Amino acid sequence: MPNMDFQQFLLSPTVDIRSEKDYANLHLNGAANFPLQDLASRLHELPSNQTSINLFGNSQSLAVATEFLESKNYRIENVMTDSVANLEEIVALGIGQRGSQSNTLWQPASVVDWFVEHVDTKNKQVSGLDIGCGAGRDSLFMAKFGWDITAVDHSASALEKVDGLRLREPSLQGSVETKLLDIEKNVEQLDSMLGRFDAIIVVRYLHRPLLSKLEKMLNRGGYIIYQTFMQGCEQWGSPKNPRYLLKEGELKRQFGSFTVLLDDIALLPDGRPTNRFVARKN
């Protein structure tokens, strides 16, 4: 394979579907290890399916992985076999490395990324709550920067994904504790958490009876970090129910006593509009 093909391969996220042992022996720079048998259970650790990805592995596994991922609407940019010739070329070009630590391909919600970049909480003991945490990407991202996060969800299977993700992120500066809680059945369960947090994260979730609780759950100077679907998503498919769609300016009105740091409309890769909102409790 010509050198240019290897360089092109490095331009997109690479999913190495070989065993952990083979990955540790040698893998492409920046590749993430997803053994084929684990791929279906770890889709939440891949980039958005709007992002093209590469696959690396043996021929048979590549065929299986390609068919599976394309059925989930992922776009496969390139595939490369782990032939002896390719492995030798990787070494010769200096674009490979050894070690079992896998690269991370997942990303947090853009509002969480914005918060970490623009709000300085370094050298502080900070605690946060992630409501409707799902697979835990936002919780883990905050923990990378020293936050101690309580990750709450009504789904036990979602919290299992959080635990799995945490095991594959050994360099956390903070911590992530999971809590099984169905807020919609009993929002009063949150009363035991009043005044406990320096930040509350809510992403892709809207339960309006919850909104009035959030201010009380924050410490003075704490932050609300919110991003969810807005009216207008209906034309893209879902959600359609007004219960789950923010009205324009709704969060700003709800947290009118807060100092607003970010309030904009961000389009998801599939075109659906979301409101990104960050504000500090005075």
Find the count of extended strands (DSSP E, 2+ residues). 13
**Could you say what the CATH architecture of the largest domain is?**
3-Layer(aba) Sandwich
Q: Please state the average pLDDT score.
A: 92
Counting structural domains, the number is 2
Strand order of the largest sheet: 9-8-7-10-11-13-12
Strand content: 25-35%
Give the fraction of residues assigned to helices.
25-40%
Q: Which runs of at least 5 residues are low in confidence (pLDDT < 50)?
A: none
Overall shape: elongated
CA-atom Rg in angstroms: 21 Å
Give the CATH superfamily of the largest domain.
Vaccinia Virus protein VP39
- Written as H for each helix and E for each strand, in order along the chain, the element string is HEHEEEHEHEHEHEHEEHEHEE
- End-to-end distance, in Å? 60 Å
Summarize, please.
This protein has 282 residues and is of the alpha/beta class.
What do you see in this structure?
This protein is α/β, with parallel strands linked by helices and 282 residues long. 28% of the residues lie in helices and 27% in strands. The chain has helices at residues 3-9, 20-25, 59-71, 84-93, 110-118, 137-144, 156-167, 208-217, 250-254; strands at 14-16, 27-28, 32-33, 53-57, 76-81, 96-97, 126-131, 147-153, 175-180, 197-203, 218-229, 259-267, 273-280. Strands 9-8-7-10-11-13-12 form a 7-stranded mixed β-sheet. A 4-stranded parallel β-sheet has the order 3-1-4-5, covered by helices on one side. Strands 2-6 form a two-stranded antiparallel sheet. It is elongated, with a radius of gyration of 21 Å. The mean pLDDT is 92.
